[in-house]
Structures are given as structure tokens and as C-alpha cells.
Design goal:
single chain; 80 residues; mainly alpha; 4 helices
């Protein structure tokens, strides 16, 4: 996701929070909350891709190993 898209997504996330919750968060807390939600969505997508691959006959891999590899690839800017 490009930087502008991420900023737009963060902005939408903040706007959708209830005002009392949004107003109580610092920018750092807001970012952390958004990032954890974003990371969860990425994990769900990665798990679905793995399940689809297993359905196609690919060998299964322990979830912890798969997610660790996927997260490492995302944090380095690549894809697994």
C-alpha cells in the first residue's frame, strides 16, 4: 500500500471511531490501534491464501511459521 493510501486509510479509521474514543487517543495510540487492525487484516488474508493453497494440494505448514515468515516479508517490504 502506498504512503498516501495508508494515510487515507488511517484518516478513515480515525473518523469512524466514536468521538469520545478518538478524542482520548494520542496520535501514537491512534496509529498503533490502526496498525494492529491493519496487521490483523493482513494475517487473515495470508491465512486464507494458505488455506486455498492447501485445498489445491500444497503441503501444509504450521500457522506460527507461516505467519512469522509473512510478517517478516511485509516488514522488509517484500512478499513471501
Amino acid at each position: 500500500m502506498a504512503t498516501i493510501e495508508q494515510l487515507d486509510d488511517l484518516y478513515r479509521f480515525a473518523i469512524e471511531l466514536p468521538a469520545h474514543e478518538r478524542d482520548a487517543l494520542s496520535i501514537d495510540e491512534l496509529y498503533e490501534q490502526w496498525r494492529s487492525t491493519f496487521a490483523l487484516d493482513e494475517d487473515v488474508d495470508a491465512i486464507q491464501e494458505a488455506l486455498d493453497a492447501v485445498d489445491r494440494g500444497a503441503p501444509a505448514e504450521p500457522a506460527e511459521e507461516f505467519l512469522s515468515r509473512e510478517r517478516a516479508a511485509r516488514s522488509s517490504g517484500g512478499s513471501a
